[in-house]
C-alpha cells in the first residue's frame, strides 16, 4: 500500500505562528492558491482515494484537490492535529514555555494530547487503510505535528527511504 502525506495548506493562524490544534480555521487566500497548485501536481498521480482530517482547513484542502482528482473523499477525525489544550490560539512557544520543538512536547498538562496519543490515532487509521493492497496510492491530508509524528515513526519502524516520495510543497 502506498500513501501520499499532505499537510493542509496555509491558514491565517499558520502565518501568525499560532497553535491551531483541534480549532477549526479556514484556509487563507494564499492557502487556496497553494491548494490549487498542489492539486495540479497531484493530478499527474493515479490516486485512488483521499482520506482527510475532518478539521476545516484539511477539508478545504481536500475540496480543492477533488476539483482536479475525481475520487472519493473520506473525512476521519483520527487524522486531526495534536490537541494543544488551552494553548490553542496562542503563539507556538509563548515566553519559552517549553524547550526545543513543540513537536516532541506532551500537552496533557494543558488539557491536550501527548505525542504518543497522536501517533496511536494516526497509526490506527494507517493500519486500517493498509489492509487494502491496491497499487494506487491513497492521499492522506492532515496536519504538521500529526503527520510529522507519523512519518518519524514510519521512518524508524516500517519503511525505507526509497519507499516514499516527497513532493515539493507549493508556494
TrEMBL record:
The protein's name in its UniProt record: Phosphoglycerate mutase
Biological process per Gene Ontology, one example term: regulation of pentose-phosphate shunt
Amino-acid positions noted as binding substrate in the UniProt annotation, renumbered to this chain: 7-14, 57, 92
Source taxon at top rank: Bacteria
Nucleotide-binding as UniProt keyword: no
Keyword terms: Hydrolase
Any single GO CC term annotated in Swiss-Prot or TrEMBL for this entry: cytosol
Taxonomic source organism: Candidatus Giovannonibacteria bacterium RIFCSPHIGHO2_02_43_16
GO molecular function: fructose-2,6-bisphosphate 2-phosphatase activity
InterPro entries membership: His_Pase_superF_clade-1 (IPR013078), His_PPase_superfam (IPR029033), Phosphoglycerate_Mutase (IPR051695)
Entry annotation: catalytic residues: 8, 81
Stored SUPFAM superfamilies: Phosphoglycerate mutase-like (SSF53254)
UniProt KW Transmembrane helix keyword: no
SMART domains noted in UniProt: PGAM
Amino acid at each position: 500500500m502506498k500513501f501520499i502525506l499532505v499537510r493542509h495548506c496555509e491558514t491565517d493562524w499558520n502565518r501568525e505562528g499560532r497553535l491551531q490544534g483541534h480549532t477549526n480555521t479556514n484556509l487563507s487566500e494564499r492557502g487556496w492558491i497553494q491548494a490549487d497548485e498542489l492539486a495540479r501536481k497531484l493530478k499527474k498521480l493515479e490516486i485512488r482515494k483521499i482520506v482527510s482530517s475532518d478539521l476545516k482547513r484539511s477539508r478545504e484542502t481536500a475540496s480543492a484537490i477533488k476539483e482536479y482528482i475525481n475520487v472519493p473523499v473520506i473525512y476521519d477525525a483520527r487524522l486531526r492535529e495534536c490537541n494543544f489544550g488551552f494553548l490553542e490560539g496562542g503563539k507556538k512557544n509563548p515566553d519559552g514555555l517549553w524547550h526545543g520543538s513543540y513537536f516532541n512536547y506532551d500537552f496533557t498538562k494543558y488539557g491536550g494530547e501527548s505525542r504518543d496519543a497522536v501517533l496511536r490515532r494516526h497509526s490506527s487509521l494507517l493500519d486500517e487503510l493498509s489492509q487494502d493492497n491496491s497499487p494506487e496510492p491513497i492521499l492522506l491530508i492532515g496536519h504538521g505535528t500529526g503527520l510529522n509524528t507519523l512519518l518519524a515513526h514510519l521512518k524508524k519502524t516500517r519503511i525505507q527511504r526509497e519507499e516514499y516520495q516527497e513532493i515539493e510543497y507549493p508556494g
